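name: query_chain
kind: protein
chains: 1
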Amino acid sequence: MKELSHIATQVRASTTMAIDSLYKQMKAEGQDVIGFAAGEPDFPTPSHIKEAAFQAIRDNYTRYTPASGALDLKEAICARMKADCGVEYAPSQVVVSSGAKHMVYLALRALVNPGDEVILPTPAWVSYYELIRMVGGTPVTVNATEAEDFKLSPQKLEGAITPKTKAIILNNPSNPTGMVYDAAQLKALADVCVKHDLYIISDEIYCNLIYDGKPFTSIAALGQEVKEHTILINGVSKSYAMTGWRIGYALAQPEVAKAMANFVSHSTGSPCAVSQKAALTALTASQEEVAAMKVAFEERRNYMVERMNTMKDVSCIKPEGAFYVMMNIEKLIGKTIGGALIQSGDDFATAFLKQGLVAVVPGEGFEAPGFIRWSYAASMENIREGLDRLERFLNR
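structure:
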């Protein structure tokens, strides 16, 4: 047999999915494990959204839609983005497809030639690095430290730019750190991008999950010139507890949107018709349940951060959005816990899962060695028990 493509053989499996799969396997075997690995809300999809899907089936809305999404959904996306983020787009500038992850891939497909460089601020979601490589691009990671609140500075950004740089991927609020760039911080980064004519792929999937009463600023809202350089990525997965419905969308300049739509038409085809009707209802109906979920996430975050910072040898800074905490385990490196030598986040996560029966994600997959990501998209009962198990594990 001839060899597989070089790109295919170099793509690594998702660290978050690997940990979650092992957790689910142990759970299926009857072990009393608690999972804090997966990045999806634990809430059910709101009832009125599910009913919209049922009605779509009853109405036989089960055929192909336009490849880049139904017009009524595109109009709803434009209205929601204007209401939530203060940005205005026409439906012709919207592309809908199978989740926000797929939209990032399509944006990269539309922009990147083989050999082009894409700047990736780290810590970063595990898929970004592989998505860049999957289109033949070169990821250029630029680390932002915990002392810098995990936020990229304009100076570091400018220092990473070369003649080959085509774009930057910016995730705001961030997975895995939960940190949020404010308007001034975004403006400083945007100025550098415009100066060097870089595309900005701005993944804002967590934009409705920001805490402490802080406002959210979309980078596309910073002015027309910045907007023209931006491909805005969003979707219904996180805000509406609709991860499995697989509806994401992008908003971009017409020529970029058209290129992305062409890729959709020749790859996945149109998004699921029933899911589109559910997403339409999510975006146009009352947003009360979104607000209620946000309140619950904030309560969980506060408890997790406060509790974690009372334990020996671990610490964390308070995230401003999304539903993740990055636990610093640097003081544990080189120590032994329950007979297991901890030399990395991978070692910690493996030992904690086997001994403490808790699944968390090592920071190595996010380019954040010495850290562990916890998701607080879990019940308060499980969070309390998980942190109890952490405390017992650390005391071994």
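note: Residues 14 and 127 are 7 Å apart (CA to CA).
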